[in-house]
Amino acid sequence: MTSAVIIVLREVLEAVLIICMLLASSSALGLRFRWLPPALLAGLVGALAYALSLEQISMAFEGFGQEIVNAVLLLMITVLLLAHNILAMREFKAPEVSRLPMLSLAILSATIAMAIVREGSEIYLYVYSYGVVAGDMASVLSGAAIGTGIGFSLGTFIYYSLRTLSARHCLLFSSIMALIVGAGMSSQAALFLAQSDLLPSSEPLWDTSAWIAESSLTGELLQAVIGYESSPIATQLGMFVGALLLSLAAIGIGYFSVRASSEGPGAAGTTGGRGE
Amino acid sequence: MASIRLFLTLTLIAIIVMVSFLSSLRGYRESMLEADSLFDLQLLEHVKLLSLLNPELSSAGYARVVEELVLPQQTDLALTAEMRIAYQVFNSDGTLLMRSVLAPVAQISPFEVGYRDVNFNGYRWRVLVIRDPEQHHWLMAAQRYDLRYELAESVILEAVIPTLLSIPLAALLIWFTVGYGLRPIRVLAREVRSKEASDLSTVELEGIPKELTPLTQSTNDLLRRLQSSFAREKRFAGDAAHELRTPISTLKVQIHNLQAELADGGGNLEAAATAADLHQGIDTIGHLVEQILVLNRTAPDLYMVQFVPVDVFDLVRDVVSAEYEQILQRDQNFELDGGRAMVKGDATALRSLTVNVLTNASKYTSAGGSIRMLVESVGGRVQLQIEDSGPGIPEAYYERVFDRFYRLDGDRHSSGVSGSGLGLAIVKHIVEMHGAQIALSRSQRLGGLCVTITFNAFETGTDS
Predict the structure, then answer these.
(1) Can you tell me whether residue B144 is helix, strand or coil?
(2) Range of A38's domain?
(3) Closest chain A residue to the Cα of B13, Cα to Cα
């Protein structure tokens, strides 16, 4: 049961971190939550479809289909988080000026749906293979329930903690979280791509499994948050650092794009200056 | 924190889940360890029993193989039945004397006393090896790890599962409890919301929780202050205007007499001119007082209106015929266009509105100028428009002219225009009272001011 708790908790936490962060951003961007149920539903349907057609997917791309689809999902989430950072920093700089509600809605919904597709399908596969096939249903389901419960509780605390901040600080924190989570995800994607020989693979750069084993609770939680890997390869580190830099660039672009786009009425300048 | 109820419910459930799940998890791990030592104890008991058997080799020199005891009702103890123990007994020189049917012929563990983990028959086993102090036999008993784990977990899960299943119930109870706890806030909100705009009586609720008492008290204080200041304002304006009416009328009569006497007296021209100015001044004051009374009567929050269907065109025609003398005096061209246009409103207020816009237009348009009124009903809307050829109002002042007592700096008109500065304020009041809109613009046709008032049309249908 403990392993079920840890594995499900890791997956749920990955999804819940993204969902809570984006929900908090959404309210700071002045959007209502009507977009959430369709996004959740799309994510769940997608996760189920992915899990059910896993056999065909794994066969594709010379047997590397699953790795490639996972990598693509992770990279798309990373890119969407970059886009979120641009929007969040625009709002941070000039609240309520030059909002892009439709674009924001599309980005938030797509990110959450994809995060659920990825994590939901993992959970489904775990429960199916260990619970249904191995016949250990009670233990796996109890573990999954405990992991899900703890994950959602953490999510609730994170969400309400972000909401206690002012809208601008909430956006800043969400962007920093998105930066870290996105970097972790792209490093995971790098591992998948290296496994399918699309990116160069190499000897691990170091091995910290003696300190924090990946399969320990701490290791799994760190993996969910920052994409922790005890013995990373160079490609992973490169992708991690690359994603961090890109995310910082997105924050910069978001921050400096508002002044450029609304110099005319001078609204951005004055509003941006007010909070500083 | 959009909803207190949602916030409380979610965070309370999250806290309960966190605390109870983490303690379940902790309890699970501890219980699994405890179960492990219980199973070890079971092995020890088994080995102790083996030491009592004191087996010998058969006459042919074979080890004895002991069949498993079959329980009569296997289903009752399905798991414990699976939890069979494999054992071997060796004599001091290492010859197998006896084994259970589960144990292989080969020795399952080295001859070393203590617990250890070994593999045989394709499973991982927990073995206890003990040396019998009397016969110096080696006694070995082993249990399958997976079965130990399964049995222990099935017992412990029985304690964990109810905790998991109770969470939805707890969530439901918290939702309703929080909702019940927040009920006084809803009641208070409903009470305040249901009050009419004119109802400033205090909010009286029974059994208000002490957290809400400061709120109700300050709301009631506010309402009381508001009520008394409303009453004071209304009384003051009304009383002052009313009280002024009589002396003004008296003054008018006296001035009239004075003028008559001066005329009879055969002509101090200077005094006659002063008396004429005085007369005009008093007229202005009289007009002002009348306007204050109208404004007071039509203040939307105090005015209990009875709206009826009114034909604006009809009403405008009436007003024009009453005020036509003023227009004629100033030699102005007047034009009225349009047709029947029904709105729902207060006839007296609408008349006052029309009088004000018409006299305004006439006042500020020079002699010989033009005034045009238009009443039309277009797609659910009724428009009342009045244009003049006067100097108009600069766009920057469009908002300010609606303020009470505001007049544009220096009369635009030199021909002794008397005004109170209340005309457009009254018009605006009446417009708001009817839920209509008023807009000022430059007249395209006549070049002066164009006032457009847009009402919602009254759908006449069969009744008119």
Answers:
(1) strand
(2) 2-268
(3) A153
Is B157 close to A142, i.e. CB distance below 8 A? yes
Q: Who's near B292: CB < 8 A, 6+ residues apart?
A: B237, B240, B241, B420, B422
Neighbouring CB atoms inside 10 A of B73's CB total: 8
Q: Which tens digit of pLDDT belongs to each residue from A79-128?
A: 999 999 988 888 888 877 767 888 888 999 999 999 999 999 989 888 88
Take residue B131 and report the two structure tokens written for it.
């040396």
**Short-list B324, B417, B300, B321, CA closest to B366:** B417
Show the domains of chain B with their CATH numbers: 4-67+74-169 (no CATH), 213-295 (1.10.287), 305-456 (3.30.565.10)
Q: Would you call A1 and B153 a contact, using CB atoms and an 8 Å cutoff?
A: yes
What radius of gyration do chain A's Cα atoms show? Answer: 20
Query: Which chain A residue's Cα is nearest to B9?
Result: A156
**Termini Cα distance of chain A:** 51
Tell me, what's the pLDDT at B413? 44
Q: How confident is the model at residue A271 (pLDDT cuts 50, 70, 90)?
A: very low
- pLDDT at position A267: 40
**Which chain B residues are closer than 8 Å to A150 by Cβ?**
17-18, 21-22
Which chain B positions have a beta carbon within 8 Å of A138's beta carbon? 154, 157, 161
Q: Does residue B138 surpass a pLDDT of 80?
A: yes
